[in-house]
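Can anyone check this?
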Amino acid sequence: MAESRYVIIDGNELEYRAGETILGAARRAEIEIPVLCHDDRLTPAGACRICLVEVDGARLMQPACHTRTAAGMVVRTATPKVERNRRFITSLHLADTIADRAAAEDNNPSKLHDLARRYGTLGEWAHVASPRAGRPHDDNPFVGFRPDRCIACSLCTRYCDEIEAVSAITLAFRGAHTTISTADRLALTDTTCELCGGCIDVCPTGAMTEKPALAWGKPERELEKVRTTCNFCGVGCQLDLNVDRAANRVVKATSPPPGTTVNDGNLCVKGRFANDFIQHPDRLDTPLVRGDDGQLHPATWDEALDRVVAGLQGVAARHGDDALCFISSSRCTVEENYLMQKMARAAFRTHNVHQCAAT
């Protein structure tokens, strides 16, 4: 008898794909299997056990995120046994963190609480006071770790290792003391950490969080997300500005879901955290020109531009066109950068023009 070329998941017959996991095949059939410790960008770990499913012929349930499909495999993802296991595992995780969803989501959304609400396990088990420790004296300004919310799913450490390739954080100690730490429990600024904040994005419980946003005290669910393009370099990463409309203030920046934008859910330290200039009290909102007293004074745009033209023409007259250099900014649009180089070459007859993103 010829070997089957299909995988059957909940009665759905799918063409077998070598190397595909049960989770991947289920998603092709639009069958949802819950996950906590999984991210498509990372090597599956099977740590949270939420995704266990029944496979015909297997003695135990199998982690869908890690188990490869095989021709002729029959999988069941919604049996009473599977559902009972999901309630049980979700309850165990919830007992290891903060059960009150409002308190747990003080700054970051909680994927764990989404699952708990779905499976009706909120408050089912008593809280277990975890002995996990944080890092002493970690005074980095951006990334905070709250060990009482951690469920040791290892998403943050695997992201740091596989995506950022810096391995600044790791799982430390054993048993109930397992926690997220660094070498010698150093502060993040004393490690290879790039403060990208990717660990914050992948954390399913809010154990990893943004310190500036936490200090602001506005839960993410109360903020409006505005999609925009990061303007710190020429890559064009997309990010979501989280805006408190009542205060007319940007509270934090988060990355869009992986697979939806050019940056695949990743941001650098500037894109994620360097947004306080928007409301900075020293931010200029009017042109300044230097007066005869040597001090800067407010001026109109026409006055400021006239001063710029006179200064550039004066340098060219005294020292020649190539004494001038024009430097544009990655914060400008492509069209604005084009106009800058056009002005340099056509109006001032020099090729000394540059842009910090080199686009």
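Reply from J.R.: I decoded it. The longest strand covers residues 238-244.
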